[in-house]
Design brief:
Chain A is of the alpha/beta class. Chain A folds into two domains: 2-222, Rossmann fold (3-Layer(aba) Sandwich); 228-298. Chain A is built from ten helices and 14 strands. A six-stranded mixed sheet of chain A has the order 6-7-8-3-9-10, with helices on both faces. In chain A, strands 2-1-4-5 form a four-stranded antiparallel sheet, covered by helices on one side. In chain A, a hairpin with a 4-residue loop joins strand 12 (249-250) and strand 13. The longest helix of chain A has 14 residues, at 108-121. Chain A is globular. Chain B has 256 residues and is mostly helical. Chain B has one domain (2-252). Chain B has ten helices and no strands. Chain B has helices spanning 2-17, 20-55, 67-89, 94-99, 101-107, 112-145, 154-178, 182-199, 216-220, 230-252. The chains are: A alpha/beta (300), B mainly alpha (256).
């Protein structure tokens, strides 16, 4: 069953066309990765799904019901985590979750059970201080807890990992992964590795419409490898190796780039390094960046 | 009802935990003490000045201070109370827009009108407590030092100023719905007050405008009667209701 349907949605701010005839669907119990550059319209799309922005034309449906602007009844199906969640800093996490529970209409008995349960899920069970002293990562985790409070059918996360350090990012990804079975997750990001770790389906927003839409498997098959790079300690080593292994580019005095090469090519390069007794500081398979994937898709 | 109670409770928690409550209480206690204190000190100050004034050929006669002197001072200070209160609460909604804290509440299904009603309640109750405290202190001191019966209708006069405060609150809420920053709300409220004050210069309009309500002091001295305020009271209540409705209607369509 489709949990979310956008049909021919357009949105314009002044003379700037943000979304242009955007259509996509998200089925139940999938994790949908919504990617695109900064300013591509991801947040605008999410805010329209939440009824915070009006739709110029087109229809958005959540769980089969049409989303209306202003008074948005469909929000009862949705848990929302904003990109930088802001809470009332003078409250403790328990007080804030209680307020959310009372507003969203969770029964008193359930609130009592659910709050400790959620705080444990997001690892905040011991943080019984006011929210104003929280780090960004802690706020993000509290954001997930409040979004899951009413057991939503859809969890919408707006760049939940973008502002976090690697540890914070991993924690959030782990939490999202652990709730995969309970709810449909739509999450926007521009960090491709996060998408690869947890998403079932991907939509790439470009020029106000989906330039790419499909399962992770389908997307993976489209992708080309970006090659690898080697960093050396000394400039001489880099020059020597460039003479031995042809077809590389200097990124800097000590860094060589091997564009378009495969894993097998990298193994061969490592063998050559060993045979010639050249010591590298770093060898790295280059993950395709959002930009490279983007260019691949858009230039098609 | 549960949503309304929960959000109103949150409003009061905010007033208490952000320390606003202490600032308000201290300010309004000071305002309450100030009027009788100044009245009490007036003869003493004149005595101090009398000698130096005598050298310049000015003689100061004996000054008689009554409860009326203190009440006159009370109404002179009133504008400071209004300003202090508006400054304290001009960010009641705009700070939530700026921080984005309302988004979570609205996406949790809190109807928008309940946000406005909760905030109205919190500001209204705060104003009532502050005003009652200030009035009570002045009234108590005046009764202790002098005799409140020399000031006619002093409770009714106090009520008119209280009602004027409610009109200012309705302006704060209206402009908070229309505008996005605290400064803009503060300026717009001030501008509106100035406009009404200017309109008050037209003799025909004097008895119609909310600013009439700030002139309770005339009532104390017996220069005006209670009936003279009826029109201004009715107009003010109508204005409060209208701005309340506009606030809610506009807020329902506001992009947050």
């Amino acid at each position: 069953m489709e949990m979310l349907t956008l049909s021919n949605v357009s949105k314009r701010f002044g003379s700037h066309q943000i979304l242009n005839d955007l259509s996509f669907q998200v089925s139940e119990n999938t994790i949908y990765g919504f990617i695109g550059e900064n300013g591509a319209g991801k947040t605008t799309t999410m805010k329209m799904i939440l009824g915070l922005y009006s739709v110029d034309s087109g229809v958005i449906q959540v769980n089969g019901e049409r989303v209306t602007y202003g008074q948005t009844n469909t929000n009862r199906y949705i848990g929302y985590l904003p990109d930088v969640p802001e809470f009332y800093g003078y409250m403790t996490p328990t007080e804030y979750l209680r307020l959310c529970g009372e507003i969203t209409g969770v029964a008193e008995s359930q609130i009592k059970n659910r709050i400790p349960e959620l705080l444990e899920l997001v690892g905040l069970e011991k943080a019984n201080k006011r929210i104003q002293g929280f780090s960004r990562g802690m706020k993000q985790r509290l954001g997930i807890a409040q979004a899951l409070l009413n057991k939503p059918k859809i969890l919408i996360c707006d760049e939940p990992t973008s502002a976090l350090d690697p540890i914070g990012r991993k924690e959030i990804i782990d939490i999202l992964q652990s709730i995969k079975k309970q709810t449909t997750v739509i999450f926007s990001t521009h960090i491709l590795s996060d998408v690869e770790r947890i998403c079932d389906e991907i939509g790439l927003l470009h020029n106000g419409t989906l330039a790419l839409n499909g399962t992770l498997e389908e997307i993976r098959n489209m992708r080309k490898s970006d090659g690898f790079m080697i960093e050396f300690d000394k400039v001489d080593d880099a020059k020597n190796f460039a003479n031995i292994y042809m077809g590389c580019e200097f990124l800097s005095g000590t860094e060589l780039s091997f564009n378009g090469k495969t894993k097998e090519d990298m193994m061969a390069a490592m063998r050559l390094l060993y045979e010639n007794q050249i010591y590298p500081v770093k060898i790295e398979m280059r993950e395709p960046t959002l930009e490279s994937l983007f260019l691949e898709v858009v230039s098609k | 009802m549960r949503q309304l109670a929960a959000f109103t409770k949150k409003e009061f928690m905010e007033i208490i935990r952000t320390g606003k409550v202490y600032i308000l209480l201290i300010l309004f206690v000071i305002f309450g003490i100030m009027s009788p204190a100044i009245a009490k000190l007036t003869p003493w100050m004149y005595d101090m000045l009398a000698d130096s004034m005598k050298d310049q050929g000015i003689t100061i006669g004996k000054t008689v201070v009554t409860a009326l002197t203190s009440w006159q001072q009370y109404y002179k200070n009133m504008s400071m109370e209004f300003i202090a209160f508006v400054v304290m609460f001009c960010g009641v909604l705009t700070l939530e827009y700026q921080k984005g804290t309302l988004i979570n509440m609205l996406t949790k299904g809190l109807p928008r009108w309940k946000v406005i009603v909760s905030k109205y309640l919190a500001v209204l109750i705060s104003w009532s407590i502050c005003y009652l405290l200030c009035f009570g202190i002045t009234y108590g001191y005046n009764a202790y030092f002098w005799d409140n019966s020399t000031a006619k209708h002093c409770v009714f006069a106090a009520f008119t100023s209280y009602l004027f405060g409610l009109w200012l609150i309705s302006l704060i809420m209206l402009f908070s719905s229309l505008l996005n920053t605290s400064t803009a709300v503060l300026l717009a409220t001030g501008l509106m007050y100035a406009v009404v004050l200017l309109l008050g210069m037209i003799p025909k309009l004097v008895d119609l405008l909310p600013t009439k309500l700030t002139r309770g002091v005339e009532l104390l001295a017996g220069a005006t009667k209670i009936q003279d305020y009826t029109l201004a009271i009715v107009v003010t209540i109508v204005l409060i209701v209208i701005s309340g409705i506009v606030t809610i209607i506009h807020f329902n369509h506001k992009r947050i």
